[in-house]
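Example record used in the benchmark description.
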Amino acid sequence: MRQRLSCLLLLLASCCPLAWSQDPVDAQRQLVNAQIARFPQDANTTSRVFFVGFAGYGEERVFAEEIKLAARRVGEIYGSAARSVLLINDRRDVKTYPLASVSSLRYTLKALSTAMNRDDDVLFLALSSHGSPDATIEVSNEGMTPQPLSAQTLAELLADSGIRWKVIVVSACFSGTFIKPLADDHTIVITAAAKNRSSFGCSDTRELTYFGEAFYREALPSSTDLRAAFDTAREEIRLREKAEGFKPSKPQASFGELMEAKLKEIESARAPAPGNAQ
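Model output (structure tokens):
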């Protein structure tokens, strides 16, 4: 009987090696660690940008696709492509990326704080999901118990990480509720909607939300700085919503004075020299 039980355990372990070798939390942390392990060991002589993407709602693909585009765009403009961590809930793929959850975000920020110079490097954090007027975004996936991420919790996670310089973009309905808990002189906060307004384009049939199209796809590549990209995207969204008869979402932003000045330095350093533009 004991021999038969041993054989059964070995068979189950071979069929489900991940479940038998480690618990789910440890498995998610290893996926985060694998992304951070690929970061280049470059000399820290100038401020660097580190990207974290968080796609919260996995039942619709639009949020995962938006975060993937955000990672590419921010990487192209701010040089963060090799220093990016993606936390993605996507019912189509639950293995490639670590899942987006409050615990995985906490772990990622803590791990990043040891990889970056917390007093000089910049965190660019992009979040995309459904949002609620109570200052939360949805965090769920097939098989996952829903666990909303609140603006206050996000503020606490960032404070615990010790990361000083931050750009935070929240693409969700009612995301203006995130500005007050997150804004300070060392932080830029950009949201897809005012605190009492819905944003649009959140659908499983779409690749990007209206905000994602206007900001990440259209405005960022052609703008001189982040404020200009936000202004361009906000106007494009206003015109589109007016044409389609939607109540305006009114994207919001808070530009911390010190963070904006620091970001301009990074943008200037990465801008092509006159006569060398592509």
